[in-house]
Amino acid sequence: MLIRNIKEFLEKTFQKKIICLDIGKSRVGAAISDSNKKISTPLKVIIRDKKFYSNLKDLILEYDIYGILIGLPLNEDLSKNKMCQFITDIAKNIDSSLRKDKKEIPIFFWDESYTSLEAMDTISDFIKTKKKQKNVLDKYAASIILGDFLREI
Description:
- About 45% of the residues lie in helices and about 25% in strands.
- Helix 4 packs across helix 5.
- By secondary structure, it is an alpha/beta fold.
- The chain has five helices and five strands; from the N terminus they run αβββαβαβαα.
- It has a five-stranded mixed beta sheet with strand order 3-2-1-4-5, with helices on both faces.
- The two termini are about 20 Å apart.
């Protein structure tokens, strides 16, 4: 279920782990929190193919996830752009897919502006090849989005 109110999202996920998704055209970075919402950990990169929704459901079950935080790349003036609409559509599809399996998981959006650049700065220190950086960038961006959220709550 898509949630617009941070208070409601926090109530529904109280002392539960959440997953953060950095949704791109072909890849989705995933990071998870601990149940106390203090730590953000990069988890994996999921390919956005026909198995995407199934793979995401598997992660939700495996890691006992009770909330989904999704990054939105807002413009500098905080307005939405075409990519925001694309991501919102994916979020609706995630919600629909979970409901088919009788899973009601709250979904909340969070500003992800510049997190990919921040993630690139972080990983370039310990991953030297561009190919390897590309393979992990999205999960580190998701972890930065989640970390920003956790610091704000």
